[in-house]
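Figure 2 data, in text form.
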Amino acid sequence: MPGIEDRLTTSWAQRIVDQHAQNVVVSGIKINSVEVGTTTRVRVTVDHNGPQTLPRRWFIKAPSKLWRVRMITALPRLLQTEARFYQELVNSVPVTCPTILSTQQQWGQGTTVVLADVTEVGATAGSPCDALTGTQAAAVVERLSRLHARFWHKVGLESADDWLAGSMRRLEDRLGSALAVPLMRRGLSLAGSVVPAELHPSARTYAGNRRQAMKFLETGPLTLVHHDLHPGNFFWRESQPGFLDWQLVRIGEGIGDVAYFLATALTPETRRENELDLLTRYQQVLAGEGVAAPDVASLLKRYRVHLAYPFEAMVVTLAVGGMMDRGTNLELIRRATAAVMDHDTYSGFDWK
């Protein structure tokens, strides 16, 4: 099957430009980079004679070239989910996102999402290995709280409930639960000393009870959540964050986003120093947006158990392989491990 690069022709780019402007001619397209992980990500420069407002640098996401990754991501239709987010929800979310240029679905080739590269607006894309400062973390948490407040108790998500919480999401959860034990065991083995041996039994117990755990992690107020907020899924413009990669967007408990973000995007030292202040700020902004938010003590209790998911996600990423640079993956496991151990996360679950 031809790769995405083989389809990136001048005529292909022309068809996309025609959706946004009349009488603009595309004269060429140049591939600048190709990265393969959870998806195949291609950056291109498109030469055209249109106005400066029509992007010339594009960012293209297509199914991963790695068969192991492709099998895991294809069944729950992750790229299709991201396409629907940009088609139906992006204009409603109170956070900055890239500009969507096109979503395409081709038989045998899957979904392709074409975005304006964030460098078009002078922004810088984050890297999964970034370690954010306390100031950066505060900016992210404030935007998260506004995002969650906008859709608190699923308000405004009624028409999207079928794909945000419907059969595909349930299938994804069942698939994750079916593979949880072997992937957790493999990931812990590959992580070696990064995850202390005393944490292994609790992690394996969690994996064996994953379906029950997922239900427990949705017992708080539900809203729209990103569900994958590691540091590589942000871009930054004038010190302000934007949000990338909406493949895992769904209905869930908002504090889960905060837990995932703090466990992966901050070093343990920075997280410990700022954690309580950031949770307090999250609660304050929710309240300021008119939400009857839980108090900080209640949020901290839920935050504690939600730390189990970023740890699982990073260990499973390592177990699957090819989804993230190995060194970066191990560093994010180290950060998430510290958070889980600091909060004795697994003792917050009742497996009876």
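Caption note: The chain has two domains: 4-116, 124-348.
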